[in-house]
Each structure stands twice: as structure tokens, then as C-alpha cells.
Design a protein that fits this description.
The protein is of the alpha/beta class. It folds into 2 domains: 64 residues, no CATH class; 64 residues, no CATH class. 30% of the residues lie in helices and 21% in strands. The protein has a 4-stranded mixed sheet, covered by helices on one side. Helix 4 runs parallel beside helix 5.
Length: 169
């Protein structure tokens, strides 16, 4: 007679948090202003403003955009702000910086809006493996929210976890 297989993990109070599940779907774009600089080093205000004015901003509809400059040039803050002001009506999110900053800001906003009541006094596993680009900062933001309420926090998978925090009872 075969013994029934019991999934002890599924039957436990253990809660799993997978940052990949809240990953916002959408196209990520790096908008590099270097092409609008004279010889990729000097910002000429009128030429730059003309480039901004004549650019097709609709191509960024529903995108997440990181505005940056990939060359070593001194760019005044207003230039990034001017580009951002044109992107904002079209894009889901605009940051001035690289893709990692973009992902960090997205997770910071998402984690800030989540309700964590289901994690109160529960052992929590923060899932580690992901196929999506989850920035390291997202994990610390998550721990910041969970640590005051969770019984314990582990990292990894249910079959193999690394303990991170345990509340003294």
C-alpha cells in the first residue's frame, strides 16, 4: 500500500513573497541624450531644444524610460528635465538615470503600495530565483516592510532557505 504524499510546505503557515510576481510588465527604454550633443560632448541649447521639439515622443507610449547620457559630458539638469517633461505624458514612468535605477524606483513604488497584513506573525520566504531584472535594493525594501511584522524571514526556496531574521518572542 502506497503512502499518501503530503505537501507539508503547502499545509504550513509559511508565506512566500516572490518579487517577480509584482514585476510591472512593459517595455524598458534607455533614452540617451548623447546623440543630441554637439560632437557628443557639448550641449548647444538651441540645437538641443530643437531636437526635443522635433522628436516623436509617442514612440514611448506605455514604456518605462530611463533618461541618461552615456558619454562624459557636463549636462545641465534642465536638459534632463526638459526631456522628462516631454516623456511624462507618454511613458508609464520616467527616471533620470540608468535601467537599474528605473527598476529600483518601480519596486520602491510597488512595495510601498502593498498590503502586508497576510504576513503578520508568519514565517516568510522571500523567493530568490527570478528571470526578471529585480534590483538588489528591492530585496532590502521588502525586508524593511516585512521585518517589523513577520515571525521570521528566509531567503531562497521552500526546500532550501537561508535564514535572515527571526523575531525574539
Amino acid at each position: 500500500m502506497e503512502k499518501e504524499i503530503i505537501n507539508r510546505v503547502a499545509n504550513s503557515k509559511l508565506k512566500t513573497f516572490d518579487l517577480e510576481e509584482i514585476y510591472p510588465e512593459g517595455k524598458r527604454v534607455v533614452f540617451d541624450i548623447k546623440d543630441w550633443l554637439f560632437e557628443e560632448i557639448i550641449l548647444k541649447e538651441q540645437d538641443f531644444r530643437d531636437s526635443v521639439k522635433n522628436h516623436d515622443w509617442s514612440q514611448y507610449n506605455k514604456s518605462f524610460v530611463a533618461v541618461t547620457c552615456s558619454v562624459d559630458a557636463i549636462i545641465p539638469s534642465w536638459a534632463f528635465m526638459l526631456v522628462a517633461s516631454e516623456l511624462i505624458p507618454h511613458a508609464n514612468k520616467v527616471v533620470i538615470g540608468g535601467l537599474e535605477l528605473l527598476e529600483t524606483v518601480l519596486y520602491q513604488e510597488l512595495i510601498g503600495f502593498l498590503d502586508f497584513k497576510d504576513f503578520i506573525d508568519k514565517p516568510v520566504i522571500i523567493k530568490g530565483c527570478a528571470e526578471k531584472p529585480i534590483p538588489a535594493t528591492a530585496f532590502s525594501l521588502l525586508i524593511e516592510k516585512l521585518q517589523p511584522i513577520a515571525k521570521s524571514i528566509m531567503f531562497g526556496e521552500a526546500c532550501s532557505t537561508v535564514p535572515l531574521f527571526k523575531r525574539n518572542s
